[in-house]
Fold this sequence. Notes:
Elements: H1 2-12, E1 25-28, E2 33-36, E3 38-44, E4 49-56, H2 65-76
Antiparallel strand pairs: 1-2, 3-4
Amino acid sequence: MLMEIEAKLIETGETQISLADPDSRSVMTRCSGIVVYNVQTAVDAKHHLVIEHAVMNIGSDRDQLSGSAKKSRAANGTTVLTAIADRGYFKGGEIPVP
């Protein structure tokens, strides 16, 4: 079985395979790793409605802010958007530029 898993990793170029759910990935938490999905959600502050969401198997939020903000701006039909996120999203290159 391990040789089959190794062959699949090589064939797909993936670094992980979840036997429970092929699309989920192991992500680090404060204490350990857990196999999960990562969900991004953007909410309109005025109406409190979800305007954009994404479910992915990328373990970190650091590369998600600008893409989510751009999709939210388009969904809102505006050219200006103020995005507020927690520090888990902090990465200088992810700060959207108009």
